[in-house]
Amino acid sequence: MATKTGVQIRTRAKTKSFVPRPYKVILLNDDVTTMDFVVYILMEIFAKNFNDAVDLMMKVHKQGRAVCGAYPKEIAECKQQAVLQAAKAAGFPLRCEIEED
């Protein structure tokens, strides 16, 4: 950019990319929710294939909890609400938490 004095000024814009912090969505084990329903939730809400869903369901069953995915906060909250609504509609007490990664 040239000015009236003939001096050329160069400017450079600094850009910062914003990467949102991921939040883990965690399913918790209980004694009532069926394994089939947990597999269904993992496939429908978290888009897991059958084998991955079964593996995660077994992890929830054996370890008491399992991380189903990590997402930006708003998406993690939406997935949590989807799990809780589906569980309530089916009559299960399945619990789902989110925590910052």
Number of helices: 3
> Could you state the CATH homologous superfamily of the domain at 33-100?
Ribosomal protein L7/L12, C-terminal domain/Adaptor protein ClpS
Mean pLDDT: 93
Q: Helix/strand/pairing class, anyone?
A: alpha+beta
Enumerate the spans where pLDDT stays under 50 for 5 or more consecutive residues.
none
Order of helices and strands: EHHEHE
What is the CATH fold-level name of the domain at 33-100?
A: Ribosomal Protein L30, Chain: A
Helix content: 40-55%
What's the quick description here?
With 101 residues, this protein is an alpha+beta fold. The chain has helices spanning 35-44, 50-63, 73-90; strands at residues 22-28, 65-72, 95-100.
Model description:
- The protein is an alpha+beta fold and 101 residues long.
- The chain is built from 3 helices and 3 strands; from the N terminus they run E-H-H-E-H-E.
- It has a domain of 68 residues: Ribosomal protein L7/L12, C-terminal domain/Adaptor protein ClpS (Ribosomal Protein L30, Chain: A, 2-Layer Sandwich).
- A 3-stranded antiparallel β-sheet has the order 2-1-3.
Structure characteristics:
elongated, 101 residues, three-stranded antiparallel beta sheet
Spell out the blueprint of helices and strands.
Layout: E1 22-28, H1 35-44, H2 50-63, E2 65-72, H3 73-90, E3 95-100
Antiparallel strand pairs: 1-2, 1-3
